Fold:
Amino acid sequence: MIRSAAVLAAGLATLLAPSRSEALNGCLDADFLDRTGRAELVVANDDPTNMFRYRPRCATVSEGTRIVFRAVPTFGHHPLYGGLVAGGTATIDPASPIGSITNGTETVRTLVDAGEFPYFCDFHYSQGMTGSLRVVPTLFGNGFD
Ligand SMILES: [Cu+2]
Structure:
C-alpha cells in the first residue's frame, strides 16, 4: 500500500513537472505564478511603471483555461506572437495555440493542451517584453483527461 502510494506520488510529480528545465523567454521555474484551477487568466502589459512588461509574465494554468490577452494601448503597438526568443532572436511558433494578435485591445485564447507556450512582443522583446505560459493537465477534473 505504501509502495503503491509512493509510485502514484512519483507518477504525479512526473506528470506535473515540466519536461524542460531551461527557461523559455526568461521564465525560470521560480518565476511561474500558480494560476491553476482557474477558468480565466488575464495577461496584460498594464504595469504603469513599465509598459514593456507582461503581468503576469510567467504563469502556470490548467488545461482549458481562457487566457485573456490585453494590450495597452493596443496590440498594434505591441504585436504579440506565440514563439521563442533565444539569443536575441525571436522565432514565431506557427503551432503555438497563442498564435498572433496584432490589433485591438483584447483577445481570448483557450489553451486546451498541456505544454509550455512562450510568447513575445514583436516590437519590444529585446527590452524583455516576453513571457511564457505552462499548461498542466486538469487532475480529477471532468474525467476526460
Ligand atoms: Cu511591445
Notes: The chain has a mean pLDDT of 88. DSSP finds one helix and ten strands in the chain.
